[in-house]
Design brief:
Helix content is 36%, strand content 16%. By secondary structure, it is α/β, with parallel strands linked by helices. It has a six-stranded mixed β-sheet with strand order 8-9-10-5-11-12, with helices on both faces. The chain has a four-stranded antiparallel β-sheet with strand order 4-1-6-7, with no helix packed on it. A two-stranded antiparallel sheet has the order 2-3. The protein starts with 5 loop residues before the first strand and ends with a helix. The relative contact order is 0.15.
Length: 282
């Protein structure tokens, strides 16, 4: 069916020295997950939880020292499939400046397809479609250096989209952006997921960014410690706090109201849901 399936990253023993001592820890330890085609998956965790290391395994920037990562029936440790894997699973990093290589926006977006050997007429078709998809057509002749952070990140996403991947992995893509930039980027990502059926794996520590995800994994010390739908995850405010994670502000407000005796449901995700719950009380 030509569908992306990233599955079962098990017992990866990447090790980092801690404070220059002999002690080491497992950056990814016993992670076992499967992503279905077209899903929007979010991975949460505080700094050092292993979520970015996990992301880099999904398109073979890193390979597991034990266990296996399968993408569309391809083993990421198989060097003969490395370019196929990276074509099917595109990566967007935290800092868009690390991905922008050309001095003109349209040339940057066309860089990936060109390196895949796509013919020139097809490259320009992809560039036009990708820039339109991220709302950056008007900037195609601009220098990336003169764009805002949110605009740069949209160009980076367009460059990945032009390679026509089946899956896009976003490693904290909004960490360096202001609130408006974050909204811009997330809007583009959700549209790609809904309209183009691109599988999305979003790595983030912003709780508000995952409320519309299909499924959420929470990582801590290299392990998956929680998993479920956003509502299931955010119904467990006290447990999330134990893992040093916040919850969306409206979810926290609803939780505190419930703790004070107000009859509101667990796992409120939006302001509208809370308003509806409070109105029903009257």
């Amino acid at each position: 069916m030509g569908i992306v399936k990233t599955a079962k990253l098990i017992y990866d023993y990447i090790r980092y020295d801690e404070n220059e001592k002999e002690e080491t820890f497992r950056a990814i330890d016993g992670v076992d997950l499967e992503v279905e085609p077209g899903q929007f998956i979010a991975v949460l965790g505080h700094n050092g939880s292993g979520k970015s290391t996990l992301a880099k395994h999904l398109n073979a920037l890193l390979v597991p020292s034990e266990g296996t990562v399968w993408l569309d029936n391809m083993d990421t440790r198989d060097d003969s499939h490395i370019w196929d894997i990276r074509q099917e699973a595109g990566m967007v990093f935290q800092n868009p400046d690390n991905q922008i290589v050309a001095s003109v926006v349209e040339e940057d977006v066309g860089f990936g397809p060109e390196n895949l050997g796509v013919e020139t007429p097809e490259i320009w078709k992809r560039v036009a479609k990708s820039l339109e998809g991220v709302g950056m057509t008007a900037y195609r002749k601009h220098s990336p250096n003169k764009l805002s952070g949110g605009q740069k990140q949209r160009v980076a996403i367009a460059g990945v989209v032009a390679m026509q991947p089946k899956c896009i992995i976003l490693d904290e893509p909004t960490a360096m952006l202001d609130p408006n930039g974050r909204k811009e980027v997330l809007k583009v990502v959700h549209e790609l997921n809904r309209e183009e059926k691109v599988t999305v794996i979003l790595i983030t520590h912003y709780m508000e960014e995952v409320t519309d995800a299909d499924y959420v994994y929470v990582m801590d010390h290299g392990k998956v410690v929680m998993n479920g739908t956003p509502r299931e995850i955010f119904s467990q405010v006290d447990i999330l706090k134990e893992y040093r994670l916040d919850v969306p502000q409206v979810t926290l407000l609803a939780h505190e109201l419930k703790e004070s005796g107000v009859d509101v449901p667990d796992g409120v995700l939006t302001t509208g849901e809370l308003v509806d719950a409070l109105c029903r009380l009257n």
